[in-house]
Amino acid sequence: MPPFWKTKQLEEMSPSEWEQLCDGCGRCCLHKLRDEDSNEIAFTNVACRLLDGATCRCRDYTNRRARVSDCEQLTPASVRRIDWLPPTCAYRRLAEGKSLLWWHPLVSGDPATVHEAGISVRDRAVNERSAGPLEHHIVTWPGTLPRRRKPPEEPT
After folding, report:
1. CB-based contacts of 91: which residues, under 8 Å, 6+ apart?
2. What is the pLDDT of residues 145-156, one digit of tens each?
3. What global pTM score does this model have?
C-alpha cells in the first residue's frame, strides 16, 4: 500500500498525518523581511525565540501562537497562500504536486537525515534575542534547495 502522502490530498490527511509532514528543519521559523515596494521576500538566519537550535523544533509547540503573535498556523489553505515557505518544505512540495525528497524522515525512516543533508537550520541560525537588526542577517540558503540533492552512497 502506498504511503499516505502519495494517496491523500492535504485536506484529506488526519491531524497525525499532517504533523508527520513536518520534517523538523526549522526553516519556516526563521524571520523573513518583505520589501514594501517590490513585495519580495528576504530570508534571514534569525530564528524565532521558541525554536530549539539543536533539535530544530519548537520549544512550546502547543502554545506557540499564544506566545508568538505572528506564528503562522499551517493548514492546507494557508500552505497554498503563503509565498515564503522554503522549497524544501513538505507541505509546499505536496501542495505543488511534487514528491518528498530522500532526506525527509517519512522517506528515509530517520529524523536525522534532515540535518545530515544540510536542510535544517541546525548550526546555521541565530536566536532572535541576540541577533540585533534583522537586516544584518539576510541570507539566501533558506529559500534554496541544497547542492547535495542525492542520498549518500551505500558502502559496497
Report:
1. 10, 21, 22, 74, 79, 85
2. 877 555 656 555
3. 0.89
